[in-house]
Amino acid sequence: MKTTKTTFLLMILFALVGCGGIGATTFINPEYNFGFVERVAVVPFENLSQDRGAGERTTRYFVSELLATEAFVVVEPGEVSRALEAIGLVRTAELTQEQSMTLGEALGIQGLFLGSVGESSAVRSGGSSKNVVTVDVRLVETETGITVWSSTVTESSGSFWSSLFGTGGASMSEVTRRCVDKIIDQLVD
User: Fold this and answer.
1) What's residue 20's pLDDT?
2) Which CATH architecture has domain 19-188?
3) How far apart are CA 44 and CA 116, in angstroms?
4) Torsion-angle region of 57 (φ positive above 0: left; ψ -120 to 50: alpha; else: beta)
5) 12, exposed or middle or buried, with CB in 10 Å at 0-12, 13-18, 19+?
6) Average pLDDT for consecutive 10-residue bins of the chain (189 residues)?
7) Torsion over CA of 111, 108, 89 and 121, rounded to 10 degrees?
């Protein structure tokens, strides 16, 4: 009886350890009053991975999850694209402080979310593979053009059970969504 309980508890422990989350790093400016930020825009995320649709997919998920929190008024993506074109910005990942401030004024926003997908790939290990996604997002305050919040999260589809049974685990879309959910949780907690 005691051996059965111990085995059962070990199985639960292994399942929890292998849930797929790899890590998160978050920065919050302790001197910034986040109550000031009411209206925000999301600049299309840069894709640094080999997965051609990763930036667009992650941007869509991020906007949807951000809207679901009801924490901010979020400018429509088409308005953001129009403002970026009007200012003549192509490489949005490398916005200067002045460009962030100009974009903030053009859109009437207090915060600008910039992000990138660092990894979106299937990684093989032994006889199984797992999907891995790393997303980096930061919030730039548009009055000064400085970063007031930043988070980097890596998620994986691999788990103890998927590696034990050789299954692929969660799809790339599911892993991306979990990654974005963790970032949003870090922001609005």
Assistant:
1) 46
2) 3-Layer(aba) Sandwich (3.40)
3) 9
4) alpha
5) exposed
6) 42 39 83 94 94 94 96 96 86 82 96 94 78 95 95 82 57 92 91
7) 40
As given in the structure block, the two tokens for residue 123 are 């990684």
Helix axes 97-107, 77-87, angle to 10 degrees: 130
Report domain extents, the chain.
19-188
In the block, tokens 């991020």 appear at 62
Q: For 140, phi and psi rounded to 5 degrees? A: -105, 130
CB atoms within 10 A of CB 110: 19
b/e map 113-130, b = 16+ CB within 10 Å: bbbbbbbbbeeeeeebbb
The Cβ of residue 90 has, within 10 Å, a number of other Cβ atoms equal to 7
Do the beta carbons of residue 113 and residue 101 sit within 8 Å?
Answer: no
Question: What tokens were used for 24?
Answer: 């998160």
Length of the chain, please? Answer: 189
141 strand-pairing partners: 111, 146
Cα separation of 177 and 181, whole Å? 6
- The per-residue pLDDT for 189 is 74
Are the C-beta atoms of 32 and 141 separated by less than 8 Å?
yes
DSSP one-letter string for 89-135: ---GGG--HHHHHHHHHHHT-SEEEEEEEEEEEEEEETTEEEEEEEE
